[in-house]
Amino acid sequence: MRLEPLRHSHIDACVRIERLLFAGDSPWSHGAFRAELDAGGYYLAALDDQDRLVGYAGLAVVGRPGAWETAVHTIAVHPDHQGQGIGTALLRALLARADELQAPVVLEVRTDNDTAIALYERHGFEQVGLRRRYYQPSGADAYTMVRPARRTQEVAG
């Protein structure tokens, strides 16, 4: 598995994975992915040894130098490839980008997604809020989680 920048040519595969994973909660459309890529966010593709997309992740970056903020917009791994460390690799790559910017990272995660919550907690995220009925149309709740900015010496250590 290797990570590379997510490209427009990956969008069809992203949409297929979205529909598998998030069918009950408004999976992202082709247009949503195009808009995110066109906006210049930090998006990565996870490709297998046959160049098939098996996962993707995206980090939005806003602000200005010295005052950057970031948000994980998505992390997804095809069900056939879950449990192989792909989600962890994607998250670590997003966090490395946030660390380069010395930016805090925020995300939302379904309150019933124990696997994702444990992953985020292992990487320094803490729950700071609850968003009732955040995911639609299912009405599932989400935790807001934050990982504080890492200073240069924390990243190097």
What is the 3D shape? globular
Spatial extent as radius of gyration? 15 Å
Q: Please state the average pLDDT score.
A: 93
- Read across the widest sheet, the strand sequence of neighbours is 1-2-3-4-5-7-6
**Would you count the extended β strands for me?**
7
N-to-C order of helices and strands = EHHEEEHEHEEH
- What portion of residues is helical? 25-40%
Largest sheet: 7 strands, mixed
Whole-number tally of structural domains: 1
> Which homologous superfamily in CATH is the superfamily?
Gcn5-related N-acetyltransferase (GNAT)
SS summary, helix count: 5
Structural class computed from helices and strand pairing: alpha+beta
Percent of residues in β-strands: 25-35%
Please give the CATH class.
Answer: Alpha Beta
Uncertain parts: none
**Could you tell me how far the N terminus lies from the C terminus, measured between alpha carbons in angstroms?**
27 Å
What's the architecture in CATH terms? 3-Layer(aba) Sandwich
Describe this structure as you would to a colleague:
The protein has 157 residues and is α+β, with helices and mostly antiparallel strands. The protein has one domain: Aminopeptidase (3-Layer(aba) Sandwich), CATH 3.40.630.30. 32% of the residues lie in helices and 30% in strands. The chain contains five helices and seven strands. It has helices at 11-21, 30-38, 86-101, 114-122, 152-156; strands spanning 2-5, 42-47, 53-62, 69-77, 105-110, 126-131, 142-147. The chain has a seven-stranded mixed beta sheet, sandwiched between helices. 28% of the residues are buried.
